[in-house]
Design goal:
Its EC number is 2.4.-.-. By secondary structure, the chain is of the alpha/beta class. The chain is built from 15 helices and 15 strands. It folds into two domains: 207 residues, Rossmann fold, CATH 3.40.50.2000; 170 residues, Rossmann fold, CATH 3.40.50.
Length: 412
Protein backbone atom coordinates (compact mmCIF):
# COMPACT_ATOMS: atom_id res chain seq x y z
CA UNK A 1 0.00 0.00 0.00
CA UNK A 2 1.49 3.33 -1.07
CA UNK A 3 0.42 5.57 1.81
CA UNK A 4 2.15 8.67 0.48
CA UNK A 5 0.53 8.24 -2.92
CA UNK A 6 -2.90 7.75 -1.35
CA UNK A 7 -2.47 10.83 0.84
CA UNK A 8 -1.54 12.94 -2.17
CA UNK A 9 -4.60 11.71 -4.04
CA UNK A 10 -6.81 12.53 -1.05
CA UNK A 11 -5.39 16.05 -0.83
CA UNK A 12 -6.00 16.63 -4.52
CA UNK A 13 -9.53 15.23 -4.38
CA UNK A 14 -10.41 17.50 -1.45
CA UNK A 15 -9.51 20.68 -3.29
CA UNK A 16 -12.59 22.68 -4.38
CA UNK A 17 -13.34 22.73 -8.09
CA UNK A 18 -12.10 25.90 -9.78
CA UNK A 19 -14.81 28.53 -10.34
CA UNK A 20 -15.97 28.67 -13.94
CA UNK A 21 -15.57 32.23 -15.12
CA UNK A 22 -18.42 33.65 -17.22
CA UNK A 23 -18.59 36.48 -19.68
CA UNK A 24 -21.41 38.70 -18.40
CA UNK A 25 -22.95 41.74 -20.08
CA UNK A 26 -24.60 44.07 -17.54
CA UNK A 27 -26.81 46.85 -18.91
CA UNK A 28 -27.92 49.70 -16.66
CA UNK A 29 -29.08 53.25 -17.27
CA UNK A 30 -27.88 54.48 -13.89
CA UNK A 31 -24.52 53.96 -12.17
CA UNK A 32 -22.23 55.90 -9.83
CA UNK A 33 -21.44 58.77 -9.57
CA UNK A 34 -25.24 59.05 -9.85
CA UNK A 35 -26.68 58.72 -6.35
CA UNK A 36 -29.70 56.44 -6.05
CA UNK A 37 -30.46 52.94 -4.83
CA UNK A 38 -30.31 51.28 -8.24
CA UNK A 39 -26.94 52.84 -9.10
CA UNK A 40 -25.30 52.02 -5.79
CA UNK A 41 -26.60 48.46 -5.54
CA UNK A 42 -25.65 47.69 -9.16
CA UNK A 43 -22.12 48.92 -8.44
CA UNK A 44 -21.92 46.50 -5.52
CA UNK A 45 -23.15 43.62 -7.69
CA UNK A 46 -20.71 44.42 -10.50
CA UNK A 47 -17.89 44.61 -7.98
CA UNK A 48 -18.96 41.30 -6.46
CA UNK A 49 -19.06 39.60 -9.85
CA UNK A 50 -15.57 40.87 -10.59
CA UNK A 51 -14.39 39.50 -7.25
CA UNK A 52 -15.86 36.14 -8.24
CA UNK A 53 -13.62 36.17 -11.33
CA UNK A 54 -16.26 36.87 -13.96
CA UNK A 55 -15.51 38.95 -17.04
CA UNK A 56 -18.03 41.79 -16.71
CA UNK A 57 -18.89 44.07 -19.61
CA UNK A 58 -20.76 47.10 -18.22
CA UNK A 59 -22.94 49.00 -20.69
CA UNK A 60 -24.34 52.33 -19.52
CA UNK A 61 -25.00 55.90 -20.70
CA UNK A 62 -22.09 58.32 -20.70
CA UNK A 63 -22.33 60.70 -17.74
CA UNK A 64 -20.94 64.21 -17.18
CA UNK A 65 -18.55 62.74 -14.56
CA UNK A 66 -16.96 59.35 -15.08
CA UNK A 67 -18.10 56.56 -12.77
CA UNK A 68 -15.70 54.64 -10.58
CA UNK A 69 -16.87 51.43 -8.88
CA UNK A 70 -16.92 52.12 -5.12
CA UNK A 71 -14.56 49.30 -4.15
CA UNK A 72 -11.79 50.36 -6.52
CA UNK A 73 -12.08 47.12 -8.51
CA UNK A 74 -12.05 48.13 -12.19
CA UNK A 75 -14.78 47.07 -14.59
CA UNK A 76 -13.19 44.69 -17.08
CA UNK A 77 -14.90 46.19 -20.11
CA UNK A 78 -16.97 49.38 -20.04
CA UNK A 79 -19.07 50.48 -23.01
CA UNK A 80 -20.50 54.00 -22.84
CA UNK A 81 -23.53 54.95 -24.93
CA UNK A 82 -25.18 58.28 -25.61
CA UNK A 83 -27.14 59.58 -22.62
CA UNK A 84 -29.97 62.08 -22.18
CA UNK A 85 -31.38 63.70 -19.02
CA UNK A 86 -34.26 61.78 -17.42
CA UNK A 87 -37.54 63.76 -17.34
CA UNK A 88 -38.32 64.86 -13.76
CA UNK A 89 -34.81 63.71 -12.71
CA UNK A 90 -32.40 66.13 -14.45
CA UNK A 91 -29.38 64.82 -12.52
CA UNK A 92 -29.87 61.33 -13.96
CA UNK A 93 -29.19 60.06 -17.47
CA UNK A 94 -31.01 57.54 -19.62
CA UNK A 95 -29.78 55.67 -22.64
CA UNK A 96 -31.06 55.93 -26.19
CA UNK A 97 -32.18 53.14 -28.55
CA UNK A 98 -29.03 51.16 -29.39
CA UNK A 99 -30.09 47.74 -30.72
CA UNK A 100 -27.90 47.83 -33.83
CA UNK A 101 -24.79 48.80 -31.88
CA UNK A 102 -25.41 46.10 -29.28
CA UNK A 103 -26.00 43.40 -31.89
CA UNK A 104 -22.67 44.31 -33.48
CA UNK A 105 -20.91 44.42 -30.11
CA UNK A 106 -22.21 41.05 -28.93
CA UNK A 107 -21.69 39.40 -32.32
CA UNK A 108 -17.97 40.18 -32.04
CA UNK A 109 -17.72 39.29 -28.34
CA UNK A 110 -20.59 37.02 -27.40
CA UNK A 111 -21.53 37.05 -23.67
CA UNK A 112 -22.83 33.99 -21.81
CA UNK A 113 -25.77 36.00 -20.50
CA UNK A 114 -27.11 39.55 -20.64
CA UNK A 115 -28.41 41.11 -17.43
CA UNK A 116 -30.60 44.21 -17.73
CA UNK A 117 -30.98 46.34 -14.60
CA UNK A 118 -33.32 49.05 -15.95
CA UNK A 119 -36.26 49.05 -18.37
CA UNK A 120 -35.54 52.30 -20.24
CA UNK A 121 -34.64 52.77 -23.93
CA UNK A 122 -31.19 51.24 -23.48
CA UNK A 123 -32.61 48.31 -21.54
CA UNK A 124 -35.26 47.66 -24.21
CA UNK A 125 -32.58 47.78 -26.92
CA UNK A 126 -30.47 45.30 -24.96
CA UNK A 127 -33.44 42.94 -24.65
CA UNK A 128 -34.10 43.09 -28.40
CA UNK A 129 -30.42 42.63 -29.28
CA UNK A 130 -30.03 39.68 -26.91
CA UNK A 131 -33.08 37.94 -28.31
CA UNK A 132 -31.91 38.61 -31.87
CA UNK A 133 -28.69 36.76 -31.00
CA UNK A 134 -30.47 34.04 -28.97
CA UNK A 135 -28.66 35.06 -25.79
CA UNK A 136 -30.14 34.26 -22.36
CA UNK A 137 -31.43 37.38 -20.60
CA UNK A 138 -32.08 38.16 -16.94
CA UNK A 139 -33.47 41.40 -15.52
CA UNK A 140 -34.14 43.34 -12.33
CA UNK A 141 -37.43 44.83 -11.22
CA UNK A 142 -36.04 47.74 -9.22
CA UNK A 143 -38.36 50.76 -9.56
CA UNK A 144 -42.13 51.02 -9.20
CA UNK A 145 -42.54 53.51 -12.07
CA UNK A 146 -46.27 52.80 -12.24
CA UNK A 147 -46.68 53.88 -8.59
CA UNK A 148 -45.19 57.31 -9.30
CA UNK A 149 -48.20 58.40 -11.38
CA UNK A 150 -50.25 59.97 -8.59
CA UNK A 151 -47.25 62.05 -7.49
CA UNK A 152 -46.61 63.49 -10.97
CA UNK A 153 -50.17 63.68 -12.33
CA UNK A 154 -49.57 60.66 -14.54
CA UNK A 155 -52.28 58.45 -13.05
CA UNK A 156 -53.78 57.57 -16.44
CA UNK A 157 -50.44 56.09 -17.49
CA UNK A 158 -50.22 53.66 -14.58
CA UNK A 159 -51.86 50.74 -16.44
CA UNK A 160 -49.90 51.24 -19.70
CA UNK A 161 -46.64 51.47 -17.73
CA UNK A 162 -47.43 48.25 -15.87
CA UNK A 163 -48.30 46.63 -19.18
CA UNK A 164 -44.95 47.64 -20.64
CA UNK A 165 -43.06 46.40 -17.59
CA UNK A 166 -44.87 43.05 -17.70
CA UNK A 167 -44.12 42.67 -21.42
CA UNK A 168 -40.47 43.60 -20.84
CA UNK A 169 -39.83 41.21 -17.97
CA UNK A 170 -41.84 38.32 -19.36
CA UNK A 171 -39.52 38.30 -22.38
CA UNK A 172 -36.61 37.59 -20.01
CA UNK A 173 -35.50 34.18 -18.80
CA UNK A 174 -35.64 35.37 -15.18
CA UNK A 175 -36.52 38.57 -13.31
CA UNK A 176 -34.95 39.30 -9.94
CA UNK A 177 -37.03 41.06 -7.28
CA UNK A 178 -35.79 42.17 -3.84
CA UNK A 179 -38.58 40.86 -1.57
CA UNK A 180 -41.01 37.96 -1.36
CA UNK A 181 -43.93 40.40 -0.99
CA UNK A 182 -43.05 42.04 -4.31
CA UNK A 183 -42.66 38.63 -5.96
CA UNK A 184 -46.19 37.72 -4.90
CA UNK A 185 -47.61 41.08 -6.03
CA UNK A 186 -46.00 40.87 -9.47
CA UNK A 187 -47.00 37.23 -9.90
CA UNK A 188 -50.62 38.22 -9.26
CA UNK A 189 -50.24 40.82 -12.03
CA UNK A 190 -49.01 38.30 -14.58
CA UNK A 191 -45.24 38.52 -14.22
CA UNK A 192 -43.44 35.23 -14.80
CA UNK A 193 -40.15 33.55 -13.81
CA UNK A 194 -39.54 35.68 -10.73
CA UNK A 195 -36.63 35.05 -8.34
CA UNK A 196 -36.10 36.77 -4.97
CA UNK A 197 -32.61 38.24 -4.64
CA UNK A 198 -32.38 40.73 -1.79
CA UNK A 199 -30.03 43.62 -1.15
CA UNK A 200 -26.98 43.79 1.06
CA UNK A 201 -25.59 46.61 3.16
CA UNK A 202 -22.05 47.65 4.00
CA UNK A 203 -22.14 47.22 7.78
CA UNK A 204 -18.51 48.33 8.09
CA UNK A 205 -19.20 51.71 6.55
CA UNK A 206 -22.64 52.19 8.09
CA UNK A 207 -21.73 51.80 11.74
CA UNK A 208 -22.95 53.44 15.01
CA UNK A 209 -19.29 54.17 15.80
CA UNK A 210 -19.44 57.01 13.26
CA UNK A 211 -21.77 59.03 15.50
CA UNK A 212 -20.23 62.47 15.91
CA UNK A 213 -21.03 64.96 18.66
CA UNK A 214 -19.55 67.72 16.48
CA UNK A 215 -21.85 66.88 13.58
CA UNK A 216 -24.90 66.78 15.83
CA UNK A 217 -23.87 70.12 17.34
CA UNK A 218 -23.86 71.60 13.82
CA UNK A 219 -27.54 70.63 13.67
CA UNK A 220 -28.14 72.38 16.98
CA UNK A 221 -28.46 69.08 18.85
CA UNK A 222 -26.83 68.32 22.18
CA UNK A 223 -25.91 64.84 23.45
CA UNK A 224 -29.36 64.21 24.92
CA UNK A 225 -31.46 65.91 22.24
CA UNK A 226 -33.69 63.75 20.04
CA UNK A 227 -32.91 63.95 16.30
CA UNK A 228 -35.35 62.70 13.68
CA UNK A 229 -34.11 62.33 10.14
CA UNK A 230 -34.68 61.25 6.56
CA UNK A 231 -32.13 60.29 3.91
CA UNK A 232 -32.98 60.20 0.21
CA UNK A 233 -34.35 62.18 -2.66
CA UNK A 234 -36.52 65.15 -1.67
CA UNK A 235 -39.33 64.39 -4.08
CA UNK A 236 -43.13 63.89 -4.01
CA UNK A 237 -42.99 60.10 -4.38
CA UNK A 238 -41.13 59.86 -1.05
CA UNK A 239 -44.25 60.92 0.91
CA UNK A 240 -42.36 63.54 2.90
CA UNK A 241 -45.51 65.31 4.06
CA UNK A 242 -46.00 62.38 6.44
CA UNK A 243 -42.46 62.86 7.80
CA UNK A 244 -43.28 66.51 8.52
CA UNK A 245 -46.55 65.53 10.22
CA UNK A 246 -44.70 63.04 12.44
CA UNK A 247 -42.09 65.68 13.32
CA UNK A 248 -44.77 68.20 14.28
CA UNK A 249 -46.49 65.61 16.49
CA UNK A 250 -43.25 64.85 18.33
CA UNK A 251 -42.39 68.55 18.56
CA UNK A 252 -45.68 69.19 20.36
CA UNK A 253 -44.43 66.86 23.13
CA UNK A 254 -40.69 67.58 22.92
CA UNK A 255 -40.07 71.16 21.75
CA UNK A 256 -36.32 70.59 21.49
CA UNK A 257 -36.56 67.80 18.90
CA UNK A 258 -34.49 68.31 15.72
CA UNK A 259 -35.28 67.29 12.12
CA UNK A 260 -32.56 66.61 9.55
CA UNK A 261 -33.02 66.01 5.80
CA UNK A 262 -30.08 64.42 3.98
CA UNK A 263 -30.44 64.58 0.21
CA UNK A 264 -31.68 66.95 -2.44
CA UNK A 265 -34.49 67.21 -4.95
CA UNK A 266 -37.39 69.28 -6.25
CA UNK A 267 -39.19 69.49 -2.88
CA UNK A 268 -36.34 71.10 -0.96
CA UNK A 269 -37.70 74.65 -1.13
CA UNK A 270 -41.21 73.54 -0.18
CA UNK A 271 -39.94 71.50 2.77
CA UNK A 272 -37.78 74.39 3.98
CA UNK A 273 -40.80 76.69 3.89
CA UNK A 274 -42.97 74.22 5.80
CA UNK A 275 -40.29 73.31 8.36
CA UNK A 276 -37.97 76.32 8.70
CA UNK A 277 -36.33 74.84 11.82
CA UNK A 278 -35.21 71.72 9.94
CA UNK A 279 -31.59 71.25 8.90
CA UNK A 280 -30.96 70.46 5.23
CA UNK A 281 -27.63 68.68 4.83
CA UNK A 282 -27.80 68.26 1.05
CA UNK A 283 -26.45 65.21 -0.78
CA UNK A 284 -23.81 63.22 1.10
CA UNK A 285 -21.81 60.14 0.22
CA UNK A 286 -19.29 57.67 1.60
CA UNK A 287 -18.16 58.02 5.20
CA UNK A 288 -19.76 61.47 5.40
CA UNK A 289 -23.17 59.94 4.62
CA UNK A 290 -22.52 57.19 7.18
CA UNK A 291 -21.80 59.80 9.87
CA UNK A 292 -25.09 61.54 9.08
CA UNK A 293 -27.02 58.29 9.52
CA UNK A 294 -25.23 57.53 12.78
CA UNK A 295 -26.09 60.97 14.15
CA UNK A 296 -29.84 60.31 13.91
CA UNK A 297 -31.93 58.79 16.70
CA UNK A 298 -35.04 57.97 14.67
CA UNK A 299 -35.06 57.43 10.91
CA UNK A 300 -38.44 58.26 9.38
CA UNK A 301 -39.16 56.58 6.04
CA UNK A 302 -42.69 57.10 4.73
CA UNK A 303 -42.23 56.14 1.08
CA UNK A 304 -44.67 53.68 -0.46
CA UNK A 305 -43.11 53.59 -3.93
CA UNK A 306 -39.99 51.54 -3.14
CA UNK A 307 -39.23 48.06 -4.41
CA UNK A 308 -36.72 47.77 -1.56
CA UNK A 309 -35.38 51.02 -0.08
CA UNK A 310 -31.64 50.71 0.57
CA UNK A 311 -31.81 53.62 3.02
CA UNK A 312 -33.75 51.40 5.42
CA UNK A 313 -30.93 48.88 5.76
CA UNK A 314 -28.29 51.63 5.85
CA UNK A 315 -30.10 53.28 8.75
CA UNK A 316 -30.46 49.95 10.56
CA UNK A 317 -26.76 49.17 10.10
CA UNK A 318 -25.97 52.62 11.51
CA UNK A 319 -27.73 51.75 14.76
CA UNK A 320 -30.63 54.06 14.00
CA UNK A 321 -34.16 53.03 14.99
CA UNK A 322 -36.46 53.08 11.95
CA UNK A 323 -40.12 54.04 11.68
CA UNK A 324 -41.56 52.98 8.32
CA UNK A 325 -44.66 51.66 6.64
CA UNK A 326 -45.09 47.90 6.43
CA UNK A 327 -43.72 47.83 2.89
CA UNK A 328 -40.60 46.94 0.87
CA UNK A 329 -37.41 46.31 2.89
CA UNK A 330 -38.99 47.51 6.14
CA UNK A 331 -41.88 45.08 5.80
CA UNK A 332 -39.45 42.25 5.03
CA UNK A 333 -36.87 42.91 7.75
CA UNK A 334 -38.52 44.76 10.65
CA UNK A 335 -40.46 43.11 13.46
CA UNK A 336 -42.34 46.04 14.94
CA UNK A 337 -41.20 46.91 18.43
CA UNK A 338 -38.20 44.56 18.20
CA UNK A 339 -35.79 45.97 15.59
CA UNK A 340 -37.82 48.92 14.36
CA UNK A 341 -41.39 50.16 14.20
CA UNK A 342 -43.94 49.59 11.44
CA UNK A 343 -47.15 51.40 10.60
CA UNK A 344 -49.86 49.87 8.44
CA UNK A 345 -49.08 50.52 4.76
CA UNK A 346 -50.59 53.85 3.75
CA UNK A 347 -52.06 54.57 7.20
CA UNK A 348 -50.57 58.01 7.79
CA UNK A 349 -52.15 58.56 11.21
CA UNK A 350 -50.67 55.24 12.31
CA UNK A 351 -47.22 56.37 11.12
CA UNK A 352 -47.48 59.62 13.08
CA UNK A 353 -48.71 57.86 16.23
CA UNK A 354 -45.97 55.22 15.97
CA UNK A 355 -43.31 57.92 15.65
CA UNK A 356 -44.69 59.71 18.69
CA UNK A 357 -44.49 56.50 20.75
CA UNK A 358 -40.96 55.69 19.56
CA UNK A 359 -39.80 59.24 20.32
CA UNK A 360 -41.16 59.05 23.87
CA UNK A 361 -39.32 55.93 25.04
CA UNK A 362 -35.54 56.32 24.97
CA UNK A 363 -34.70 52.93 26.50
CA UNK A 364 -36.91 51.09 24.00
CA UNK A 365 -35.43 53.14 21.17
CA UNK A 366 -31.89 52.17 22.14
CA UNK A 367 -32.81 48.47 22.38
CA UNK A 368 -34.51 48.60 18.98
CA UNK A 369 -31.49 50.33 17.44
CA UNK A 370 -29.17 47.62 18.74
CA UNK A 371 -31.41 44.88 17.34
CA UNK A 372 -31.62 46.73 14.00
CA UNK A 373 -27.84 46.77 13.77
CA UNK A 374 -27.74 43.00 14.42
CA UNK A 375 -30.28 42.42 11.62
CA UNK A 376 -28.33 44.54 9.14
CA UNK A 377 -25.05 42.77 9.88
CA UNK A 378 -26.57 39.60 8.41
CA UNK A 379 -27.22 41.28 5.04
CA UNK A 380 -23.84 40.54 3.48
CA UNK A 381 -23.23 41.63 -0.11
CA UNK A 382 -21.21 38.48 -0.74
CA UNK A 383 -24.28 36.32 -0.09
CA UNK A 384 -26.42 38.56 -2.30
CA UNK A 385 -23.91 38.34 -5.16
CA UNK A 386 -23.87 34.54 -4.85
CA UNK A 387 -27.69 34.45 -5.20
CA UNK A 388 -27.49 36.83 -8.15
CA UNK A 389 -24.86 34.59 -9.75
CA UNK A 390 -27.10 31.57 -9.19
CA UNK A 391 -29.94 33.13 -11.19
CA UNK A 392 -27.54 33.91 -14.04
CA UNK A 393 -26.20 30.35 -14.04
CA UNK A 394 -29.73 28.93 -14.16
CA UNK A 395 -30.56 31.11 -17.18
CA UNK A 396 -27.37 29.97 -18.92
CA UNK A 397 -28.14 26.31 -18.18
CA UNK A 398 -31.65 26.61 -19.62
CA UNK A 399 -30.23 28.21 -22.77
CA UNK A 400 -27.62 25.51 -23.45
CA UNK A 401 -30.07 23.03 -25.06
CA UNK A 402 -31.30 25.86 -27.30
CA UNK A 403 -27.71 26.62 -28.31
CA UNK A 404 -27.21 22.96 -29.21
CA UNK A 405 -30.40 22.80 -31.32
CA UNK A 406 -29.47 25.96 -33.23
CA UNK A 407 -25.82 25.02 -33.70
CA UNK A 408 -24.63 27.89 -31.49
CA UNK A 409 -21.85 27.80 -28.94
CA UNK A 410 -21.87 29.56 -25.55
CA UNK A 411 -19.11 32.14 -25.06
CA UNK A 412 -15.72 30.54 -24.62
Amino acid sequence: MNTAHDADALLVDDLPAPRHSRRLAVVTETYPPEVNGVAMSMARVVDGLNRRNHDVQLIRPRQPARATPPSGHPVVDEVLTKGLPVPLYPNLRMGVPSKRALVKLWSLKRPDVVHIATEGPLGWSALQAAQHLALPVTSDYRTNFHAYGKHYRLGLLSKPIMGYLRKFHNRCDATMVPTEALRQLLAERGFERLSVVGRGVDAQRFDPARRSAELRASWGAGPDDLVLGYVGRLAPEKNLGVVLAAYEAVKAQQPGVKLVFVGDGPMRAELAARAPQAHFAGSRSGDDLAAHYAGLDLFLFASLTETFGNVTTEAMASGCAVVAFDSAAAGELIHSGVNGWLAGAGREEDFVATTRVAASHRAARLAVAEAARATARRLDWGDITARFEGVLESAIARAEPVFAMQGLQPAA
